Amino acid sequence: MADYDFAEAMLATNPLAITDPRAIPSRRYYDEAFYQLECEKLWPHVWQMACRLEQIPEVGDWVEYSNVGKSVLVVRTADGVKAYNNHCRHRGVPIAGGDGNASGNCAASGFVCPFHGWRWNMDGENTFVYGRQLFDADQLEHADLALKPVKCETWGGCAFINHDLDAPSLRETMGPVLDRLEAHGMSKLRSEWWFATELPANWKIAMEAFMEGYHVMATHPQLQHSVPALYNARYGDDTGGLGPSIDPDQSVRDNIASQIENLELLSSGMAGMCHAKEVEIARGLADADLPSTVAEALPVWFGLVQEAITRKLRERGEDVPDLNAVCQSDPVNAVEFLFPHYFLLPFFTSMASYRIRPTGPETCRFEIWSLTHFAPGEEPQAPMEPTVLPYNSQDFPMIPRQDYSNIPLQQKGLHSEGFDFMRLSGKVEGLISNYQRLIDGYIAEVDKPILADQTCRLGGNFDGPILDFAQPGAPPAEGATGQA
Ligand code: FES
Ligand SMILES: [Fe+2]
After folding, report:
1. Ligand 1 pocket member 118 (CB < 6 A)
2. Which is the closest atom of ligand 1 to the Cα of 113?
3. Per-residue pLDDT tens over the stretch 162-194
4. pTM of the model
């Protein structure tokens, strides 16, 4: 297998660097020094989803976003959305919020430091220093008193920030995944609900639980039971794998009934993603005229469902994409990742979106937004804060609850004597390896354009192979197969 080009440089600064792409050292998920490396070398240089734009609809609206001890103010100004490091230029007090979750509007009063009352406008300019005569003139140079900017871009209904002012743009970093999601109406989606929880697990463990569909059979058996063909064909082997096997004699009508049941399970299990309004439309096509074999009938039926969803939601005034057209022009993956800590689960016209931030080496804050379209004037009040629940709360939809049941257990298992590394399938768990080796690239301070190229190549890598990062744009590493 081709070695990662930077392995030697990485091991010098990072004793837990990955040397075999199929083997992830377990200490990377709890080692304090490795966590500090991530805080110093990864997080200050990556694009982070900071807030949803419906949280800051009016000029002057701001929200605080914080991660690994760094607080940022994201502000809607007359010239677009801007972001600043949240500290007073006098003695460092956060000039707004400070608890990590605050929001407000600064159009009338600007930002006022609570300690000695210095002020800034929404463009970051200092507008007031109380008792100027108490300072030397060279301490109060206007430009030097301005709030320190943080790179900020908007895309897909969200504001993204990057502490690295020299970082490649969001587009250069993420690549075509942005176009795919945009074609599916990403920027027109609004938040329907927002939940959060604290998980006793490293943030990467939580992310990795969503990087393959191989866990569906054991973790979400209800999904496989309704449409075994879908999962067994992909992950099963000669023995048929887990759960029920494919019934070759299933009638077209029974198969469609199973497909509808699967949509219902996805919809109720996620309280969204496959939205209830879309399931209702699909149900209305249970008796549609279809070809006589399952193989021919299924694509025809899904085409009818997508056409009906597009038409009926547009009739209600929702600005949804033409699903049959975008499935051809811009097919999306079941999960689309924006490295490092944000991902989307697109389905028909709605999506679930997840963000995971570390709160320590072995804890993380896990958030889920359910996103959908609304007709103009029917948008709900944007949630300004998540509803925070214990991770084992019965109020979480079933599918995230099933994922949460494994994540803290896995964190414990990593500490077990003799468990030195995770062994990954090079065919369907490659994204885990690719993510982790990209983190190593940040820790080794690899050139930014190379890191951006590698990040672009993670787009579409869900359920995918281990990639050869030695060459920009190179095919999958030797021995790995599947879709890059
Ligand atoms: S610390 Fe902000 S005005 Fe003094
Ligand atoms: Fe899952």
Report:
1. yes
2. 2
3. 999 999 999 999 999 999 999 999 999 999 999
4. 0.94
